[in-house]
Amino acid sequence: MTELRTTVATALRVLQQLRADPRTVVMLIAIPSVVLTMLYYMFSAVPVPPGQATAFDRVATAVLGIMPFTAMFLVTSIAVLRERSSGTLERVLSTPISKGALMAGYAVAFALFAAVQAAVACALAFGAFDLTIAGSVGAVIGVCVLIGMLGIALGLLCSAFAQTEFQAMQFMPALVFPQLFLCGLFVPRAQLPDWMQYLSDVMPLTFAVQALEQIRDHTAPTALLWRDIAILAGFTVAALALGAATLRRRTA
């Protein structure tokens, strides 16, 4: 019960801090919708042979998951670095709170934002832009939230190694960009060179995109979808555990 109370207290504290920064809140929720709008009008000019899916229908489902992953990774890592540089994190860790409960509190708070972000983006994609999939919209939102939690977990892990916000930003091209290039969004994974396929096989965003493609193409959950969800959950738990283990109670 003590762990649960401290987790909830940490989540509420982080949510209050985010509430005091409305520009960050608006950016978290609005930017995915702006990106989707740009994609929709960009692909609307591409001619499509009769009976084939539009380019927007092919890529938008994957993009719905990539956006919370990227946004949550960046915002989480920077938010924790700000708390560390201001001394807030060190004061919190000087109390009996466990590092695991602290990490869980951060994860819960940002996961709520990931859920809102995914819901707004999906409402725009499936409503105004008439995105068509075989599976359910609820399944897409659920997987997008899980992908956002993966971004949160990786952001928390990276923040334990960064000393400044600039260093946290450097993890973006190091960890996020390679996954974007190799996840199958730009080039089908089967067409990649063998060594790139091997790298893709150990990158969590690969399984995120694959899970969303399963929902896009199949009316009922498939065994591959459940496997990908389990792998994403495993990556998330492992990253949170490593982040808690490497989090320092005192700032160097």
TrEMBL record:
InterPro entries given in the database record: ABC-2_transporter_component (IPR051449), ABC2_TM (IPR013525), ABC2_TM_bact-type (IPR047817), ABC_2_transport (IPR000412)
One Gene Ontology cellular component annotation held by this UniProt entry: ATP-binding cassette (ABC) transporter complex
Membrane topology: Multi-pass membrane protein
Residue ranges annotated for the ABC transmembrane type-2 domain, each copy included: 23-250
Any Pfam family the entry gives: ABC2_membrane
Coiled coil regions, renumbered to chain: none
Segments passing through the bilayer: 25-43, 63-81, 102-127, 133-157, 169-187, 229-247
Subcellular location: Cell membrane
Keywords annotated in UniProt: Antibiotic resistance, Cell membrane, Membrane, Transmembrane, Transmembrane helix, Transport
GO terms of biological process kind: response to antibiotic
A Gene Ontology molecular function term of the record: ABC-type transporter activity
PANTHER family recorded: MEMBRANE COMPONENT OF ABC TRANSPORTER YHHJ-RELATED (PTHR30294), TRANSPORT PERMEASE PROTEIN (PTHR30294:SF38)
Family membership noted in the UniProt record: Belongs to the ABC-2 integral membrane protein family.
Protein name (record): Transport permease protein
